[in-house]
Amino acid sequence: MLAAGLKFIHIAAIAIWAGGLICLPFIYRQRSEVGVEHDLHRLHAMTRFFYIAILSPAAFIAIGSGTALIFAQQTFVSWFTLKLVFVGFLVLIHLLTGIVILKLFEEAGHYPTWRYVMVTAITTAVATAIILIVSSKPEIDMRDFQTEFFAPGRLGEMLEPVFAPLIRLVRP
Ligand code: HEM
Question: 67 CA to middle of ligand 1, Å?
Fold first, then answer.
């Protein structure tokens, strides 16, 4: 019951967060269409409210409920690692798109069409990748990625030449 409740909150918060991030470039694009000072201030206020009061809390609730779900569902599986890599990209997009708001509403602020299309496409691709991973839960054998570099004890071997002189100093 707890897991079902957490998952409901998780997916609801994600729908607002990911959906909002996909829509934000379209809102930024309106900046170039607004001529009247009054409308510019209204668009600025609405964009800030959308980002600060809706998107960011939704992101926190999505990540918080997701973290609780890890323990409620014991989700200690490899596909989840891949999911969190893409969630990291979504968080990066959230931060970078927030910085845009600081500059966009200055005198010469402008949001070109190519950027609107590119950011919308990248955000949609990242959110879709996450949903594909969590719904397919692919069998990933981490040993497939275990190259010689990641072999147990390899790090010690690599650092030995660096630390050996120091160790000899301490323990002649
Ligand atoms: C740090 C952020 C996140 C954490 C810790 C997290 C964690 C989790 C966990 C533990 C589950 C349960 C998995 C299972 O069924 O065993 C889950 C389910 C799910 N998550 Fe996340 N998640 C995060 C972010 C996201 C994001 C950004 C999305 C989508 C854009 C997402 C989409 C989903 C979906 C659709 C499910 C339901 C999967 C199912 O029931 O089969 N999650 N999440």
Answer: 9
